[in-house]
Amino acid sequence: MNPSIRAIRHAPVLGKRLLVLFAAITCLFVFPVPTTSVQSFGLSPAAAAPCSDPKDLNCSANTHDNGNGSGGCGAQSCPGGGGGDGEPDPGPGTCGLVQCPINNGNPAPVPTGPQVQAAYDAKGFPGIAITSAPLEKSFVRLRTSFWLKPDAGGPAYRRIPVHVEVGTPGAANYQNINAVATPVGVLWEFGDDRTLTCDDVAMEVDEEGLSACSHVYEQSSAHLDGGEYKITASLTWTVHWECLGAGCDAPAGDLADHIEIGGLAFPVGEIQTEAQ
Predict the structure, then answer these.
(1) Is beta strand 175-189 parallel, antiparallel or unpaired with respect to 268-269?
(2) How far apart, in whole angstroms, are the C-alpha atoms of residue 230 and residue 188?
(3) Contact, 125 vs 183, CB < 8 A?
(4) Burial of 7 per CB tally in 10 Å (0-12, 13-18, 19+)
């Protein structure tokens, strides 16, 4: 009889159990259980938790899951391709989320219209100043001419050009913008419930001191607060722009009309005649 077998037969019961446990552990290391046996029971390898922390760089809006599990890296891509076939080389050890460039690496587009509006907001439009003939005062049933004149030292009511450049020539966001603001007409409110729209803005009177933009008051202003009519002039400007460059919204466009408003307190009296 083999001496080893004889020793086992006479070993205590506890010793036998230890030997059996040792043999079982040895088999587990030598013959590992295949992963397919785990999947056959309806189980799957653990997946990484989804990205949820907005403060994490990899959780920003321009990151995309490449669909990789624990079995290695798959194809990684960004929206729009990023050049070539749209699947950039992920590089060694870059499984998980792919950091994608914003707008494929180009500067964010800048709307054209707001750039023009900002330029005119900075430049400003001429203020409103009203003049008349007769000057500063008129009389009942007397034809009175009105027109606009620039504020003292201010710009005239002429076309106002601006030029704006955005980005660098040749860049994807480059815009070369030329715009012109044009005064197109004045809405007059004479304070006696009557109005008049005149296309001419800074008109001059004729030899008789009259103009096409005129008004005749039928009643004096003596009954009004302060003894004056409150005249209002609303000057409308149109703004048209044209744009060259890859970043332009369109070749041309228009802003909403700009309106400048001014007022004048204007007394109107009765013509006095001497008794015969």
Answers:
(1) unpaired
(2) 11
(3) no
(4) exposed
Q: Which two tokens stand for residue 3?
A: 């001496």
Tell me the pTM: 0.59
Quick check: helix, strand or coil at residue 146?
A: strand
Report the DSSP pairing between strands 175-189 and 195-198: antiparallel
Sorted by sequence, the CB contacts under 8 Å of residue 39 that are 6+ apart come out as none
> What tokens does 151 get?
């504020």
Tell me which of 2.60.40.10, 3.40.50.300, 2.60.120.10, 3.40.1190.20 is the CATH number of domain 112-269: 2.60.40.10
- Looking at residue 138, its pLDDT comes to 96
φ and ψ at 97, to 5 degrees? Answer: -80, 145
Return the number of other C-beta atoms located less than 10 Å from residue 146's C-beta.
Answer: 24
Give whole-number Cα distances, 207 to 133, 138, 144, 213, 215, in Å. Answer: 12, 18, 14, 15, 18
* Bridge partners, residue 146, by sequence: 132
> How far, in Å, CA of 181 to CA of 120, rounded?
9
Mean pLDDT by 10 residues, the chain (276 residues): 51 57 60 47 46 42 43 46 45 47 63 95 90 91 87 72 94 95 94 90 61 88 95 95 95 96 95 62
pLDDT single digits (tens) 84-126 = 444 444 444 444 454 444 455 666 678 999 999 999 999 999 8
139 phi, psi to nearest 5 deg: -135, 160
Domain ranges of the chain: 112-269
